[in-house]
């Protein structure tokens, strides 16, 4: 690889004929992981331009503008072979190589696939109001069915009754990680099977908020306040249908939730209760489709909301074979031994097929 780089440089590097600003500007047009990884592998000067231009961070910002909230970034090497933090072998390395590694791996995790069969909600935090606590508290919305296993006990959250049809309600949840990519939110209104006519107490509209806590969170699931949070993202307002089914509210784009707080805002009321002629909103189940960033966490550093991105530095062994080669190409790792292992495995496989055909 060293000889290859020297050969490329000796034949003339186009980037060397340009001033640094122009070369950096041209590389900013690289907008895929494959392009950036390929540019990093051309020669030393190109790799230097990729690092100094922070192209991996730029790629994160293009698809996930929430990355702008990271004012700092540090790396915590959790390798067993290294000394503990604070010793002379501290793993915090504030340099361009570290930034490249952090944002390259961040982008890889940001582009993961959603967890299909598991909600990203860890726990219920608070509801703006509750009619009968705890039987109708927000905790009931974590149960996936409108009834428990005995098929008699209902599972739902209910707001207090209101005469104003425009009175809003909110349900606030903690996600499974401080950093989660949210793809869509699924909500099922509650059908009161025990009331005459089996009315469905849905809301008229729904809006999703993502953000973080600004002061100590309250432990009571029904005493939260919007003043406890800073919202870094608000979705468009979605229409909710008055039907007994799981309704999907897909965000316009995948959104990085920095802080791990998600709030469902229920706007407008459509159903009165026959007993008191008040408007209620009742929700059977809420789930969040997305994925957590397992190798990263966020730490609040100041106001306005700025965070320190902490990379836990899980250095995993490179996989071999076709999948391993593709994975390492995306990550910018094109070591000759990986290609050699891949080539040998292909030759052995071809010879095995040939021998079996005799």
Automatic annotation (TrEMBL):
Every F-box domain range: 18-59
InterPro entries (alphabetical): At4g00755-like (IPR055336), F-box-like_dom_sf (IPR036047), F-box_dom (IPR001810)
SMART domains reported for this sequence: FBOX
Domain of life of the organism encoding this protein: Eukaryota
PANTHER family to which the protein is assigned, alphabetical: F-BOX DOMAIN CONTAINING PROTEIN, EXPRESSED, F-BOX DOMAIN-CONTAINING PROTEIN
Stated name of the protein: F-box domain-containing protein
